[in-house]
Inverse folding.
């Protein structure tokens, strides 16, 4: 059974977490039995990596307080039991501040809440990452940890959610992604956008908008493109 935003939201609002049993981890769901070890650099890095991985894909939920296991016929882990955590073990303000400190740019609409079980003080820690605008991507991890220590060099990490994994992008893949943004076609489109902005600014400064002959408009657009060819 796969997760979806609306279904997860309904279950969490009802507080009856038994409906989560049987859900498989995928692009939209990461389930964890134990809270992140925020007192350790590696725990803070892991949190930032998992959150940015969802932000770089299509959003998703991190749910803390669920036990999972790998079934023989499944390629991903499946929620097997609800094992709620105490609210003191999921300090909402600390989670929010660490995510803000360790990630860039700021993730729009990020939710960090503790949802108690119906009739109980224990519950599930929820980190909800809404789908992000493409122009805001990629989201990066500002503080990278290696062998339990924060690296002091000018370095960042990049992760994207894929199935039930949030592994950082391999060095060669990261270099390839950055290189694509430097290809001639991408640079050409950027220059065209800049010239279009200048045209729009000029039209705005000229006064109220007026009807422009379609043929004249198309000629102007072609001239912008031809300059870049």
């Amino acid at each position: 059974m796969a997760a979806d935003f609306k279904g997860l939201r309904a279950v969490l609002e009802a507080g009856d977490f038994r409906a989560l049993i049987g859900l498989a981890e995928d692009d939209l769901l990461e389930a964890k039995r134990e809270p992140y070890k925020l007192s350790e650099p590696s725990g803070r890095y892991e949190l930032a990596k998992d959150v940015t991985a969802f932000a770089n894909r299509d959003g998703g939920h991190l749910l803390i307080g669920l036990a999972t296991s790998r079934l023989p016929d499944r390629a991903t882990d499946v929620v097997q039991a609800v094992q709620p955590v105490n609210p003191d073990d999921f300090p909402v303000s600390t989670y929010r501040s660490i995510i803000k400190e360790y990630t860039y740019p700021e993730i729009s609409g990020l939710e960090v809440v503790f949802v108690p079980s119906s009739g109980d003080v224990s519950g599930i820690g929820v980190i909800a990452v809404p789908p992000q605008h493409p122009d805001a991507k990629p989201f990066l991890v500002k503080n990278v940890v290696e062998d339990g220590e924060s690296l002091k060099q000018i370095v960042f990490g990049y992760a994207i959610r894929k199935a039930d994994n949030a592994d950082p992008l391999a060095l060669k893949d990261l270099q390839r992604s950055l290189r694509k943004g430097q290809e001639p076609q991408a640079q050409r489109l950027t220059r065209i956008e800049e010239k279009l902005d200048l045209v729009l600014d000029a039209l705005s400064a000229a006064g109220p908008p007026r009807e422009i002959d379609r043929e004249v408009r198309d000629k102007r657009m072609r001239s912008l493109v031809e300059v870049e060819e």
